[in-house]
Amino acid sequence: MAVAAITLIPVGVSADVITRQVVATNIWEDAKDVASQVATRIRNGEVVINPIPPLNGIDMIQVVAPGGRILATSNAARDLPALSPVWPGPYDRVRELVSCPLPDSRCVHVTAVRATPAPDSPVVYAGKQTPAIVRSRMLATVIAIQLILLIAFIGWVAWRIAGRALRPVEDIRAELAELTENDLSRRVPEPESEDEIARLARTANRALDRMEQAVMKQRQFAADASHELRTPIAGIRAQLESGQLHPDDMADAIEAALRDTDRLESIVTDLLFLARMGAAQTTTREEVDLANLAASHVAARPARVVAKLNLEPGVRVECVVSQLARAINELLSNADRHAATEVSVDVRRNGDQAELAVWNDGEPIPAADQARIFERFTRLDTARSRGKGGTGLGLAISREVVEAHGGTLDVESEPTGVRFVIRLPLPGTRRPGAR
């Protein structure tokens, strides 16, 4: 509305000024024509009829001699003095002016035309009383009222349009206001249009989808973690109570309690590692030879099955060494735990990626379970025994580490065994998903 006012007010003022100017110009032009006709008769020596008849709507006409004596006049100007004291010069014989000789200071738009350059030449004054539209504020008042009505109408239309355009925003706001932590299933309405508001609604719903999934995963993780932690804690308590009741078996109770403590420590360590990964903390990356990194960790860890190495030298990656080493160790532990007789580790370059594959000849993983094994605290039916040492977090840790480096971790199950493959971008080809 303010913009409309700023735009229209100058337009209204200009319309008032232009209208007044056009009216005055038309009177002066008509008066000039009439005065010129009378002046022509005087130059030609013709007798000017007295009273002078009105011509072209110009009703005030006077022929004035030097000194102010009126030689001839129209009936409308009969009882008036000279319409103007202005006397055109011999070389500037036409003058347009406004004079106010009428009673009550009313004015006349007058054109003065000198008949000849001679010193005793009379002057013809022709004019018309200034119209009310010019001399009063009537025109300005009419224009102002029209502007006010037009600005009000524009404001009303803009308000209606803005209200209709912003109604979806209010619907989105109202729906978000009803969103609570205990009910994340609500979604904002999506307009059918393809404008910015519709895109905002779709983006908001995608964000709500991700939020709901994240909260559900967090709740499930908390439930699983509490369940996993309860088991070793209950075991420790049971062993201590057993030792209290049977002091002679205290050594066995302490040994069993220590085993449960080790498992509890492993779970807590893995949980802390995942929490640090989820916090996306800034860490220093360095370029390392993937074959050397894999070989050093194969050699450093005790293994039930000795791994066969097939390592291509010179395959380098940029990584946080401690994190990538943790992922490799988890895969080695998993392979050693499930292998029957063989484990192999392969490193090679594949296009713009570095690949590290850990294979074991254990039981194949059903296709339906291949995605599930990377979820936290997931154990397949064939690997549920906690006595085998797994916390259920190893593969989840490995995948999160690899994805944080812009890579992927996939499982390939074959009749002869299972292969886990890490694919990482080579230096200079880091992917957007890397942190």
UniProtKB/TrEMBL annotation:
Parts of the chain that traverse the membrane: 138-159
Record's GO cellular component terms: plasma membrane
Top EC category: transferase
Histidine kinase domain span: 224-428
Reaction catalyzed: ATP + protein L-histidine = ADP + protein N-phospho-L-histidine
The entry's keywords: Kinase, Membrane, Phosphoprotein, Transferase, Transmembrane, Transmembrane helix, Two-component regulatory system
Domain HAMP: 163-216
InterPro entries per record: HAMP_dom, HATPase_C_sf, HATPase_dom, His_kinase_dom, HisK_dim/P_dom, HisK_dim/P_sf, Sig_transdc_His_kin-like_C, TCS_sensor_his_kinase
Listed PROSITE patterns: HAMP, HIS_KIN
Localization per record: Cell membrane
EC number per UniProt: 2.7.13.3
A GO term, aspect molecular function: phosphorelay sensor kinase activity
PANTHER family with a match to the protein in the record: SENSOR HISTIDINE KINASE TRCS (PTHR45436:SF5), SENSOR HISTIDINE KINASE YKOH (PTHR45436)
Protein name, UniProt field: histidine kinase
UniProt source species: Acrocarpospora macrocephala
